[in-house]
Write a structure and sequence with these properties.
Largest interface: A-B, 24 and 28 residues
Number of helices of chain B: 10
Structural class of chain B: alpha/beta
CATH superfamily of chain B: Aldolase class I
CATH class of chain B: Alpha Beta
Number of strands of chain A: 11
Radius of gyration of chain A: 17 Å
Number of helices of chain A: 4
Number of domains of chain B: 1
Shape of chain B: globular
Order of helices and strands of chain A: EEHEHEEEHEHEEEE
Number of domains of chain A: 1
Largest sheet of chain A: 7 strands, mixed
Oligomer: heterodimer
Distance between the termini of chain B: 32 Å
Chain lengths: ~200, ~325
């Protein structure tokens, strides 16, 4: 089978522990989720370019399983930042609260249906807080990212988006995972997955 | 031991229509890009040759995403021959590939006979190119590509035109999406091809049932990977029967055993595509597997088993 792309959720250089947060979506993720502690899994990485370090007052916007790279990002700094952890409904909060207990990080939870935290979409929750934000860092479904991009453009706040796309080689050779940008098609695996919001064209 | 009592060396080297390969394993055109990324990851040392991604006269943007999707024992792609064009290839890619080790073949694409000929003319004399592969079989571009590869007369026209522009060894890459692949191969041979490479991907599609529409941005794509190997193998066999020029076989190879099957069907050498996605280190594994087989069978060269499954040649 083809390898599957994942964001890094946690990485500890001291213990050598790497944690991925995997949403079971198909055969590959089901196989990974069903693997046992003694199983050998091939891993190629880290690949591509990640988020820059967030300035103080940044908003990290997570949609569903898009939480994974934002938890890793939040752990890279202790400056004050706010994580907007959004999902369609309460059952989709995969990330344990203890993993979000980090110096400087405040958490706002929200659901589209109001079943947990604030009621509202990621876009609505972001709109309420965008004024004065240091920068925005987002990962989630494509429509959510398109909305985040537009809100940030209107507010004049710099935003960085981590994109998902179906991949094959993962290293930039096959140009299978491109996204349309102001500079033509770019490779999500190598030129991204993180792009400045103003660069990508999201439909 | 030879008759003179000297030990004879076991060698994986093959001559693919004048291109001297250290071993019969090539990177197929497309998945490997221009080689830079795989060079960083695994190096080139285990590859006999590299066929770089299709080069057109002018840059091509390629198809809208999504461009790839996994399928049962394989994958679909509809990249659409995105490439930076002839000028950028010569200036930005070729220089770093010169002397990299493996023989370098350039895959040529175009929408018209003139465009194909123009790319060949532009590459002629460029240092570091060991051969050309004429792509008349890409299922992912609307104009040209496969349109030439599904008709013997059109195949003859484009091969003749390119033949006039180049002295390099010229392979012609055929599409499996045809009724009689032997007829296409013969047309290419008669028009001056030095070798045939096959197969390109098999046309296919996948539907996203949640969205109720085709998953790929281009709707249709090309199927590759182990799923297509039996089809590829049969076509390599048929083409090896139909022509006298060497055959470069490809289609779903993921093991030394697969490689041996292609050679026994009549291929001189093989190329890897999707298999490199599964295992970037595949070339070294295949080399080791082939050497182990040769040792076990007492072979000194792979030519001893080329086409062996077909029995004696008909001509």
């Amino acid at each position: 089978m083809l390898p599957r792309p994942f964001s890094i959720y946690k990485a500890d250089p001291l213990t050598g522990e790497l944690v991925l947060l995997i949403e079971i979506k198909g055969r590959g993720t089901a196989l990974l989720a069903g693997s046992s502690p003694a199983d050998k899994i091939e891993l190629l990485g880290p690949l591509g370019s990640g988020f820059p370090t967030p300035p103080a007052g940044s908003l990290l916007v997570a949609g569903g399983a898009g939480i994974a790279p934002l938890v890793f990002l939040a752990s890279s700094t202790e400056v004050p930042q706010t994580l907007l952890y959004c999902a369609r409904t309460a059952g989709l909060f995969a990330c344990p609260r203890r993993d979000l207990d980090m110096p400087g990080l405040s958490i706002v939870e929200a659901t589209d249906d109001g079943s947990r935290g604030e009621k509202g979409t990621a876009a609505a929750v972001l709109s309420r807080r965008i004024e004065g934000a240091g920068a925005v860092f987002a990962c989630g479904p494509r429509p959510m990212l398109a909305a985040v991009k537009e809100i940030c453009r209107q507010a004049g706040v710099k935003a960085w988006l981590s994109l998902e796309e179906r991949m094959a080689c993962g290293i930039g050779a096959c140009v299978g995972c491109v996204v349309a940008t102001t500079g033509g098609y770019k490779r999500v695996c190598r030129d991204g997955p993180v792009f400045p919001a103003e660069e990508v064209i999201l439909k | 031991m030879s008759e003179q009592g000297q030990p004879l060396e076991v060698s994986l080297a093959v001559d693919l229509c004048g291109i001297k390969l250290d071993n019969p394993i090539l990177a197929a055109s497309g998945p490997f890009g221009y080689g830079h990324e795989y060079r960083e990851l695994t190096g080139f040392k285990d590859l006999g040759g590299i066929i770089v991604k299709g080069v057109s006269l002018e840059p091509w943007e390629g198809n809208p995403p999504p461009r790839v999707a996994e399928t049962a024992s394989g994958m679909l792609n509809a990249v659409g021959l995105q490439n930076p064009g002839l000028k950028s290839f010569l200036e930005d890619h070729l220089p770093s590939l010169r002397g990299a080790g493996p023989r370098l073949l350039v895959n040529l694409v175009g929408c018209t006979v003139e465009e194909y000929a123009g790319v060949a003319a532009g590459l002629e004399g460029a240092e570091g190119i060991d051969g050309l592969e004429l792509n008349i079989s890409c299922p992912n571009v609307k104009a040209g590509g496969i349109a030439f590869g599904t008709d013997p007369q059109a195949t003859g026209r484009v091969v003749s035109a390119v033949r006039q522009e180049t002295k390099l060894p010229l392979l012609v890459k055929l599409s499996p999406n045809v009724t009689d692949i032997g007829a296409i191969a013969r047309a290419a041979e008669e028009a001056g091809a030095d070798g045939i490479s096959l197969i390109n991907t098999i046309s296919g599609m996948i539907i996203d049932t949640a969205q109720k529409k085709p998953l790929l941005g281009n709707a249709f794509g090309g199927l590759s990977g182990p799923a297509i190997m039996p089809v590829a193998l049969k076509m390599v066999w048929q083409v090896a029967e139909a022509v006298k020029i060497p055959v470069l076989g490809m289609g779903g190879i993921v093991s030394a055993g697969d490689t041996l099957q292609f050679i026994m069907a009549g291929a001189r050498a093989v190329a890897l595509g999707t298999g490199l996605f599964y295992e970037p280190d595949l070339p070294s594994q295949l080399k080791a597997g082939l050497l182990e087989y040769m040792d076990k069978e007492g072979l000194r060269t792979l030519s001893e088993i080329e086409g062996v499954a077909r029995g004696p040649k008909k001509f």
